[in-house]
Amino acid sequence: MGSSLPWENLETPLESQEAGLGQGAMIPTVCEMCFWKCGVHARVHQGKLVALTGNPDHPLSRGRLCPRGVGGIGSLYDPDRLSEPLIRVGERGSQQFRVATWEEALDRTAEGLRKVADQYGPESLALFYHGAGGSFFKTLFKGMGTANIAAPSYAQCRGPRDVGFELTFGEGAGSPEIADVPNARVMALIGTHLGENMHNTSVQDFSAALGKGMRLITVDPRYSVAAGKSKYWLPIKPGTDIALLLGWANVIIREGWYDAAYIEKNAVGFEKFRAEVSKYTPEAVYIETGIKPEQLIATARELAQAAPHSLVHPGRRVTWYGDDTQRCRAVALVNGLLGNWGQPGGFYMSSSIPLKQAENQPPLAEHQAASDRPAGSYPYAGSVLANGLREATLTGDPNELKAWMVYGTNLPMVLPDPRKTLAAIQKLDFMVAIDILPMEITGWADVVLPECTYLERHDDLIAPWYREPYVALRQPVVEPMGNSKPGWWMAKQLGKRLGLEEHFPWETANDMIGDRLNASGFSAAQQANLYRKGVILKQADPMYLPAGAPLDLATPSGKIEFWSQQLADTGFDPVPVYRRPEQPGPGTFRLLTGRSPVHTFGRTANNSRLLDQYPENEVWLNRATAVDMGLRSGDRVMMKNQDGAETGPVKVKATERIRGDCVYMVHGFGHKAPRMRRAHNNGGDDNALTTRYKVDPIMGATGYSVNFVTLEKVEV
Ligand code: MGD
Ligand code: SF4
Questions:
Q1: pLDDT digits 0-9 by tens, 328-368
Q2: Which comes out higher in pLDDT, residue 24 or 310?
Q3: Region 494-504: what's the mean pLDDT?
Q4: What residues contact residue 592 under an 8 Å CB cut-off, 6+ apart?
Q5: How remote is the CA of residue 667 from the centroid of ligand 2, in Å?
Q6: Residue owning the nearest CA to atom 1 of ligand 2
Q7: What are the backbone dihedrals phi and psi of residue 637, each rounded to the nearest 5 degrees, phi first?
């Protein structure tokens, strides 16, 4: 009988391909320590994973991984991993469970979902997911007849950016982003902290561009790592970026630093836009942002003189103030003025390899609208809102939600106002959590299903839109630990119990992958090569538009929409308008949050290898302010917000690298789940302080940076 690990069954065994890394087979697979999905070489010796390195054939890794990718071993061998199915025996949230067999846990899950669907209809079911394995449960939930399927990567992360770009250029900014950083001569970052926010390829591109002399403008209240590489650091007052962006637009237009013929040919509403932005003079913008007029003019000139080989980066987690779609639209509009759409150093045209569904898999019916918003609200939401599903669970509007499946997302620490998340869970008839660790969310579930990690399983094929189109394979490199199982297997077993088996027509993951590759026209030789190399590459379509070619965009006008008729028709500002945000009172600070390059949200907070490199989060506080408060680096403080919510004790980092009106911390620490022994009570949880949030009226995203905190020294 062959091994369950496909690479062990290859006719010619895989061999070590690199010197100096010891013995063992080198198995290609795909990383999931974050959602970028770089190609990995996993070195396995005597059944044990001993090293992870970048797959040189994979376009996203190019032979390298980021620190988290290398540290994936720490997640695989985490001693606190979930290893058995669990069924709740105490009160919800009391963390009392008993070990169950898979048979019993799956029966209980199918029964919980079926009962709710029968009693309240399929629209009362919701799936929250994040990560590749979620695709199998999406199939299951669509099969059950619900459209309530949401990931926090939309309304808690990139959604407003994509809507802002769609309203302007007819297309989102992509993931990986379509920013042509390697060829940019000038780039502006609006709070985007590339290098701390770590995505392997974008950081490789960023450092290559800097090495080639790209000039950088960093707009950030904090002197980020990127600010340290910049020609200009603009330490902006938090929440005022729209004023700066419109100020840049005004100066570029006023000074005639744009290509009038390009705008004439490719834009609509330009004259109205010009009139609207004319009030954002450098002097007026200075009062709001604190950015000196001469700095605004110099940076506008820098961007404009390099156009079209310059850009304002679209950013990634842009959910800050509740006016985020308009800020991102302002980013898109400055790019429109630079004429960089489809141009080297601006935004490139991505392409992908279209994958077909397996021939023996029936198509899934499209269901009515999701229950994530009251009728008529958030008209530009392009995906289901995770916060909206929570709201419907609480309010019953537009309908009650009574059962949740939560796959790979730790809702209590990622949806703002965790009190609401827990209140919503208490209203459910049934909740199942599928996770690899005993995270906060699992403590509230009725059934916990332990998934094996990305290094122990197949997931669906990966074929994103990128510069070079490719298909990549995730395959198991070692056997699953304990009694954990892959998501595809769980979904199939639940499908059987729910009468949906036809949607999971394969017996093994190899069949599942093979059927899809066959349907998509890949030959047997290509498929064998995919298992051996981890990736199939295809020639890219042209990445740039010919210079001077007219744009043919997917906006209603087919052009860049400087003045948006569709926004006007739906009651929104057709051109972004700056509105002054509420400011923190004396002795309080706006809470800003971001990323560490060696951690991903909260999912790596128990990973020993990554904790070695960044052991806990700290609160950054302006040094002069710290002196006034009698605080020094290394002191511990409790952080308390305007609603009395607290977290800590957190270590202080007193530094000149941040303005005095805000504090900053890395998201994802301060876990309260008791069974994660390293993460438990380590550092502070920014989400505990996010009891206030602002919902973007255009598309429903949740702005987090509207909380004000005080710091109080504690002895520990
Ligand atoms: P994590 O905290 O990493 O964030 O939201 P999440 O992805 O939910 O939680 C991941 C969960 O997945 C953990 O429970 C982890 O154990 C589990 N997990 C990890 N690997 C696997 C696996 O292979 N299988 C399964 N089944 N489970 C797995 C991220 C989201 O959070 C995003 S995208 C953004 S940008 C927002 N960021 C953000 C923020 O910066 N601050 C605050 N306060 N909230 C935020 N929410 C958003
Ligand atoms: Fe893995 Fe890092 Fe790539 Fe993310 S950026 S997929 S963590 S190597």
A1: 999 999 999 999 999 999 999 999 999 999 888 998 887 77
A2: 310
A3: 97
A4: 221, 222, 238, 662, 663, 664, 665, 705
A5: 17
A6: 69
A7: -130, 155
Question: Is 305 exposed, middle or buried (CB count within 10 Å of its CB: 0-12, 13-18, 19+)?
Answer: exposed
- The side-by-side arrangement of strands in the sheet containing 430-435 is 97-99, 86-88, 447-450, 430-435, 403-407, 125-129, 149-150
Q: Comparing C-alpha atoms, which of 243, 253, 201, 251 is closest to residue 219?
A: 243
Return mean pLDDT, the chain: 95
Q: Could you report the per-residue pLDDT of 102-135, keeping only the tens digit for each?
A: 999 999 999 999 999 999 999 999 999 999 999 9
Average pLDDT of span 158-174 = 98
Instruction: Note the pTM of the prediction, 2 decimals.
Output: 0.96
Could you identify the atom of ligand 1 that is nearest to the CA of residue 442?
14
Q: By three-state DSSP, how is residue 526 classified?
A: helix
- 437 Cα to the center of ligand 1, angstroms: 12
Question: Considering only CA atoms, which of 291, 315, 209, 310 is closest in space to residue 252?
Answer: 310
Instruction: State how far the Cα of 172 lies from the Cα of 178, in Å rounded to an integer.
Output: 9
Residues with CB under 6 A from ligand 1: 32, 130-131, 133, 152-153, 156-157, 317, 407-410, 413-414, 434-437, 439, 441, 451, 453-454, 593, 600-603, 667-668, 686-687, 690, 704
* pLDDT tens-digit readout, 666-693: 999 999 999 999 999 999 999 999 999 9
Q: Name the more confident of 10 and 131.
A: 131
- Residue nearest (by alpha carbon) to ligand 2 atom 3: 38
Q: Name residue 406's beta-bridge partners.
A: 128, 433
Mean of pLDDT values over 606-620 = 97
Q: Which ligand is nearest to the CA of 41?
A: 2
Query: 405-446: per-residue pLDDT in tens?
Result: 999 999 999 999 999 999 999 999 999 999 999 999 999 999
Ligand 2 centroid to Cα of residue 648, in Å, is 29
Q: How far is the CA of 357 from the centre of ligand 2 (A)?
A: 27
Work out whether strand 430-435 and strand 447-450 pair parallel, antiparallel, or are unpaired: parallel
3-state secondary structure of 326: helix
Mutate to test the pocket of ligand 2, among 30, 36, 197, 204 (most ligand atoms within 8 A of CB): 36
Return d(Cα 362, Cα 203) in angstroms, integer: 41
Q: List Cα–Cα distances, 443 to 351, 394, 411, 432, in angstroms.
A: 42, 20, 11, 10
